[in-house]
Design brief:
39% of the residues lie in helices and 21% in strands. The protein contains 23 helices and 23 strands. Helix 5 packs antiparallel against helix 14 and helix 5 packs parallel to helix 18.
Length: 710
């Protein structure tokens, strides 16, 4: 195994530590991981919900909110339609629960049994027949062109909220809310479906409770610049920047009517910081006849944010937490915008207990759908996970109890390996309604029954996975040569549709190339694709789009369905496409990336349990944010014991750092005793930190990745 510790400029580490007020070790890890921009670093060092991006910046969300408010006003019947996986189930429960709490006539539906992914004709027609007038899709819908057209024919509006890659032709929906739309200016593309649903719920909460909803507001500021003055104005709508104007004016040279200012301000409420100063400056610029009504918001902000009281915008710029993450120095107006936004959020109590509860669901869907844990996904998962540990919502609390996770600390690993698979099992076994019902159920007895059924379904899913692997793996092995070692395929009657995604993942891990697993029904074939080594799946899918009934997904995980008559033409085309696949390098020797190095006894102060503070700061771990990996040199092995039943395959070590004796676990390492290390040896090792939970007690330990004699 290669230990790779990237060399980094020491001066960049020092600058990062100083600029972002963090210690040198944290700064070195940020730099080593390529996190050097303020925007990236902000989401590693901050977890306040005010750092979440404004939902009204999403394309289509204004129209969606207005349509839903109209449906509430008119007492319309609404259908929330989701997907059968964790992301879709949590999205469905979140939006349905919110709309129901507002007294709206709402029902929900998920694809059952062998029903296809996405909005179905059957669902549209049955809902229309039941006097429904509005369908809101969550985690699906972006590829449902025909179904949306059918809904329109029947007088049903469709709002699509999705995060999958859009195709060139979009459904003719009432509104589409998706950060990946071509016209999207939303700063972060990689929200999960439940992340988009959470944004819609957040926007609706704002619309229902805030006096500022859809109110035109301008923030104005003036400042001197040599012999002239700069007048900056920004239009704010629903706390999002809508438009911006900058005028540079020399006093006495032009009247205000000769500038763009009057037209820009028309019909707007004008807010300023320090009205006497602003009026005095504007009179100096445009003359004594100048008059404009403006409201001084500084006193009100000072009451809510005491540290801002009595200070100028220039002074506040020096102490602003948000400003320090800007990659270029923010102006006074930028500070004003941040202050005003924080003021409204604090005054109106925007982050409510209900938000916290919804983030539990958003965190689950984000982790389960393997969304990158960057940008605001970090806050979604971090806050959702904290809320889940502190006070899990109904339904999740029942599952946590049955999984042995209740009442203890856990992280994204437990979500990924225990909680998410249990919820996912319901969908894979054809009954996702049980999981959604559990998350929405009020009656404790009903929740108890549903939780038990979901745990049983998960056990059935595990057995199905084992049984199907015996079919899938040999078929994939046979296909290796046919696809030039660059692709594997397993397709058969006996493959259960609900586990095709799991099987494709296992094939990728087994063969290190893109994989396709296909399940056949009487008239259709349904496939799950997973990629590897940097190959993006979209070109493959687009090259066969005319053969599919439906297709979609992400760059590295996707799926499709087709009529069986198209199977042979698909295979011919697949063979041609895969001949031209270009895969990234695969190395024979595994490489482990090292984030920081400690040498005992020179740096024993780092090898204490205080190191968990650093590990916790970089949580949550997952996609695009692997657990911190450390290299320690010169540790003494003071004890060795064996672990595992019925056969001992693992090793438990005690490692002396000079200050602390650490328990350590080295998996599958029995054969390495005496060969690679022994008791009383001094060793170098690469490891991660772990909290072991056993019999109600939490114990810190090292998990050894690789170990060598010093």
């Amino acid at each position: 195994m290669i230990w790779d510790k990237k060399d980094i400029p020491s001066e960049l580490v020092t600058e990062t530590a100083a600029k972002y007020s963090c210690d040198l070790l944290t700064a070195s890890i940020l730099v080593r991981r390529g996190l050097t921009s303020g925007e990236d670093i902000r989401y590693f060092l901050e977890d306040d919900p005010r750092h979440l991006r404004n939902p009204f910046e999403l394309p289509g969300i204004d129209a969606a909110v207005e349509r839903i408010l109209g449906a509430k006003e008119e007492g319309e019947r609404i259908l929330v339609f989701g997907d059968r996986d964790v992301d879709g189930i949590t999205s469905t429960a979140m939006l349905t629960g919110f709309l129901s709490a507002q007294g709206m006539d709402v029902r929900w539906r998920l694809p059952m049994g062998d029903e296809p992914y996405g909005l179905s004709m059957k669902a549209v027609e049955e809902f229309a027949a039941d006097s429904g007038t509005l369908i809101i899709t969550v985690d699906c819908g972006i590829s449902n062109l025909a179904e949306v057209d059918r809904a329109a024919e029947l007088g049903v509006d469709v709002i699509i909220t999705d995060h999958h890659n859009p195709q060139d032709e979009l459904p003719r929906a009432y509104s589409i809310v998706n950060p990946k739309l071509k016209n999207s200016t939303y700063p972060f593309r990689d929200l999960a479906g439940c992340g988009v649903a959470y944004k819609l719920v957040s926007a609706l909460r704002f619309a229902l409770k805030s006096e500022l909803y859809n109110q035109p507001i301008c923030l104005l500021n003036t400042q001197p610049s040599n012999d002239s003055y700069i007048i900056e104005i920004v239009k704010i709508g629903n706390l999002a920047v809508m438009d911006r104007l900058t005028e540079t004016v020399v006093p006495g040279m032009v009247g205000i009517g000769e500038t763009r200012i009057p037209a820009f301000l028309e019909g707007q409420q004008i807010l300023v910081w320090d009205a006497p100063l602003q009026k005095k400056t504007l009179v100096k610029i445009f003359g004594a006849g100048f008059e404009i009504y403006m409201l001084d918001i500084a006193p009100e902000i000072g009451k809510q944010i005491p540290q801002a009281a009595g200070k100028s915008l220039l002074r506040l710029k020096e102490i602003s937490r948000i400003a320090k993450y800007a990659d270029k120095s923010p102006g006074e107006l930028d500070i004003f915008i941040n202050l005003f936004t924080s003021f409204i959020q604090k005054k109106e109590g925007h982050f409510t207990p209900e938000d916290s509860t919804d983030l539990q669901l958003a965190a689950l869907g984000t982790v389960a759908d393997l969304m990158p844990l960057r940008d605001e996904n970090r806050i979604i998962v971090r806050r959702g996970l904290a809320s889940l540990i502190e006070k899990p919502r109904s339904g999740l609390s029942d599952l946590l109890f049955k999984l042995g996770l209740a009442g203890r600390r856990f992280g994204t690993t437990e979500l990924s390996w225990q909680l998410c698979p249990a919820i996912n099992a319901a969908g894979r076994m054809g009954c996702p309604d049980k999981a959604a019902a559990l998350l929405l159920a009020v009656d404790p007895k009903e929740r108890e029954t549903l939780a038990a059924e979901i745990i049983a379904l998960n056990e059935d899913r595990k057995k199905l996975g084992s049984d199907n692997w015996t079919v899938v793996e040999p078929l994939a092995q046979e296909s290796v040569e046919a696809y030039g070692g660059k692709f594997v395929l397993a397709a058969a009657e006996g493959i259960y549709r609900g586990v095709t995604g799991i099987m494709a993942n296992r094939l990728v891990n087994r063969f290190k190339v893109p994989a396709l697993v296909v399940s056949f029904a009487e008239e259709t074939a349904t496939g799950s694709l997973r990629s590897a080594r940097g190959y993006e799946l979209r070109p493959l899918l687009e090259g066969c789009a005319d053969l599919f009934l439906d297709w979609g997904g992400h760059n590295f995980a996707a799926g499709f369905s087709m009529v069986r008559a198209n199977w042979e033409p698909f295979l011919e085309r697949l063979k041609y496409i895969t001949e031209n696949i270009e895969l990234g390098e695969e190395t024979d020797e595994e490489t482990v990336t090292v984030d920081a190095e400690f040498t005992a006894p020179r740096t024993p102060q780092f090898l204490t349990t205080d190191l968990f503070e650093l590990v916790d700061r970089f949580e949550p771990y997952g996609e695009e944010n692997s657990p911190l990996s450390f290299l320690a040199r010169g540790l003494k092995v003071t004890d060795i014991s064996l672990m595992g039943k019925p056969e001992a395959k693992h090793v438990k070590l005690t490692l002396d750092t000079g200050k602390v004796k650490w328990p350590a676990v080295y998996w599958q390492a029995v054969d390495k005793i005496k060969r690679d290390f022994d008791k009383n040896d001094t060793v170098d090792l690469v490891f991660t930190l772990n909290r072991n939970w056993f019999n109600g007690t939490e114990t810190p330990q090292l998990i050894v990745t690789d170990l060598k004699r010093s």
